[in-house]
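Q: I'm building a small set of examples for a reading group on sequence design. Run inverse folding on the following structure and report the sequence directly after it, with nothing in between.
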């Protein structure tokens, strides 16, 4: 059953408009308060952004000094590389002394070399070294072989022969290939 309203229509309409006006005023107040809070928050964001910008400007100045220092060091490096290039051009390429000195630096102290034969400018355009010697163990021979292979001055190193020697020593023969000018690259 439908409820009956005994109040006059004008009163009901006036009450409805008062309620709508009351709700609108509260919504307007809430929107105004939200706008004030939003502007405060944006202000804080702007202040933070300004502080970060100031920090970046200060960092940019110190970074600029570091960039200048790096550029100066790179210029010095280029000058030293040019001087080193001149010195390398003055060194003899493929000398027996240079290759044997490199070989001597790589040989462990426990190994004794009996003979080093250098073939200059062989068929492949490089140098071939035939190294024979004695070692207390096969491990030291392998260590020498690994050092020769790891060295940028030598292209290839191979164990040609390894046999038991007098006592507990091992006699070995290594063949090592070096490109022309290898000792100049190693220094």
């Amino acid at each position: 059953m439908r409820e009956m309203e005994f109040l006059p229509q004008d009163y009901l309409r006036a009450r409805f408009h008062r309620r709508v006006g009351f709700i609108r005023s509260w919504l307007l107040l809430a929107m105004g308060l939200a706008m004030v809070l939003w502007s405060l928050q944006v202000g804080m964001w702007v202040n933070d952004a300004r502080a970060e910008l100031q920090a970046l400007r200060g960092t940019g100045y110190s970074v600029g000094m570091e960039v200048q220092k790096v550029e100066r060091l790179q210029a010095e490096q280029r000058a030293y590389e040019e001087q080193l290039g001149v010195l390398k051009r003055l060194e003899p390429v493929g000398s027996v002394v240079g290759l044997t000195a490199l070989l001597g630096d790589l040989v462990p102290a426990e190994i004794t070399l009996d003979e080093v034969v250098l073939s200059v400018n062989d068929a492949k355009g490089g140098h071939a070294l035939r190294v024979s010697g004695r070692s207390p163990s096969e491990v030291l021979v392998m260590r020498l072989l690994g050092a020769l292979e790891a060295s940028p001055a030598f292209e290839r190193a191979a164990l040609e022969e390894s046999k038991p020697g007098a006592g507990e020593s091992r006699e070995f023969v290594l063949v090592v290939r070096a490109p022309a000018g290898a000792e100049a690259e190693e220094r």
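The first helix runs from residue 9 to 90.
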